[in-house]
Every structure is written in structure tokens, then in C-alpha cells.
Design brief:
transmembrane; membrane; Iron export ABC transporter permease subunit FetB; 0% strand; single chain; 78% helix
Length: 247
């Protein structure tokens, strides 16, 4: 892609800004900030990845993964400030998912232990875990606020915190997993995944591209289940005090 073609793609930015201005959504500033940040961040990451791929050193790979995890944790943490210890709970969840997925991939020789495989796949796994964690926390917050009286009633009748919050917890876990499951139902029919399309555009064999995309589909399914369940069960005890009362 030439720089001229890249500049022309800014037309895709002008459209949402125009609609926001016309409909008075007041999202123009946020849109511009998001665009500028994404450009700067992607350029910086591009040079970092080139250095890491060329160096092919385990320390640099680990540092890159820790950088991604740190950014993801910070983004999710802001959505769960009402939960005590949310930072370490989100970090534990994402680190566990990363270790689990890479352990299976590398341990079973599914993918080579090289930066070209580890970092892109880790980025997809960590990014997906981040989004699902945010979805879970948003839904969990809404569920607790909507059913606070129900939870307090169960507690007053001698129920445990787990019993009091069980319905809201399961509902939130389910809601956060649904988008991933539903998107995979139409994979290849409605949407052509970016990884597969990118490989085909680059000249890779379509069958090989499909096989790698299937790998990512399975990874994201595990990520959606583990991140929602683990974060949910780590979080709910923090909603109660020592006398088993809802805070």
C-alpha cells in the first residue's frame, strides 16, 4: 500500500465524524483521539515487532507479552473498580489464559516457539480476554444493581454469598461468552477473519490459511470460556464483607 492510498483511507474516519457532528453525538473529539492514538501506537509497535522478530530472543518475547498483558489489565481494571483487588484478579486471569494456550500450542508442537508465532497469537488471545473481561464486568455490574434486593433476601434467609449471587454470576458469564460463540457460527459465511484473509492476500495457500484460522477460532473459544468463568469466580467474593453482607 502506498502512502497516498493510506492517506485516502482517512475518508473512513471522516464519515463517522460527519455523522457524529450531524446527529450531535459529541463523539468527534473521542474519534480523533482514537485515530491519532491508534496510528502512533501501531507505528511504535511495528518498529518494536521488527526488532523483536529480528532478534529472536526469549527475553524480548517475554517483555512484549508482559507489555500486552499490562496494557490489557489497565484497560479492564477501570471497569471493575467496585471489586476489591480487581487488578490482580484480572492479571491472574489473563496470565493463566496466556500460559494455558501457549503451553498447549508449544507443548504439543502445534506452532513453533518463535516470535513470529508466539507474539501475534498472544496478542489475539490477550486482546480477546481483555474484551471479554470488560463485557463480563459491565454485565455483572448491571446484574448486581438490578437484583440487589433479591441477593439480600437470600442472605437474610441464611443463604451463602455464592447462592445469593449465583444467578447474576452465571447470567453475566453467559452474556460475555455469547458474542464469541455467535460470531463463530457464521465464520466463513458472513465474515472472513482477518488472519486468514491477510495470509491469502500475502499469497499463502488458502487451505493453510484456513487451518491457521481454525486454530485461532478454537483458541478464542477457550479464551472466552476461561476468562469469563475465572474472573467471575475470583471477583464475586469481594462483593461481601466478613459478615456475609452485600457491600
Amino acid at each position: 500500500m502506498s502512502y497516498t492510498a493510506l492517506a485516502l483511507t482517512l475518508s473512513f474516519v471522516l464519515i463517522p465524524i460527519f455523522l457524529s457532528k450531524t446527529l450531535k453525538l459529541q463523539l468527534e473529539k473521542d474519534t480523533i483521539i482514537a485515530v491519532v492514538r491508534s496510528i502512533i501506537q501501531l507505528l511504535i509497535v511495528g518498529y518494536i515487532l521488527k526488532f523483536v522478530f529480528d532478534a529472536e530472543h526469549p527475553v524480548y518475547i517475554l517483555l512484549m507479552i508482559l507489555l500486552m498483558i499490562g496494557a490489557a489489565v489497565e484497560n479492564v481494571r477501570k471497569k471493575g473498580l467496585f471489586i476489591k483487588g480487581i487488578t490482580w484478579k484480572v492479571a491472574a486471569t489473563i496470565i493463566f489464559i496466556e500460559v494455558l494456550t501457549q503451553g498447549i500450542l508449544i507443548g504439543l508442537n502445534i506452532t513453533p516457539a518463535t516470535a513470529q508465532y508466539i507474539i501475534p497469537i498472544s496478542g489475539m488471545v490477550i486482546g480477546n480476554a481483555m474484551v471479554l473481561s470488560i463485557l463480563f464486568l459491565n454485565r455483572f455490574t448491571a446484574e448486581i444493581e438490578a437484583h440487589e434486593d433479591q441477593a439480600e433476601l437470600i442472605l437474610s434467609l441464611g443463604g451463602t454469598p455464592k447462592q445469593a449471587i449465583h444467578t447474576q454470576l452465571i447470567s453475566s458469564i453467559k452474556a460475555s461468552m455469547i458474542p464469541t460463540i455467535e460470531s463463530q457460527k457464521t465464520m466463513g459465511l458472513v465474515q472472513l477473519p482477518g488472519m486468514m484473509s491477510g495470509q491469502i492476500i500475502a499469497g499463502a495457500d488458502p487451505i493453510q490459511a484456513v487451518m491457521f484460522q481454525i486454530l485461532i477460532v478454537f483458541l478464542l473459544l477457550t479464551t472466552s470460556a476461561v476468562s469469563s468463568v475465572m474472573l467471575g469466580y475470583l471477583s464475586y467474593p469481594s462483593l461481601f464483607n466478613e459478615r456475609m453482607q452485600l457491600k
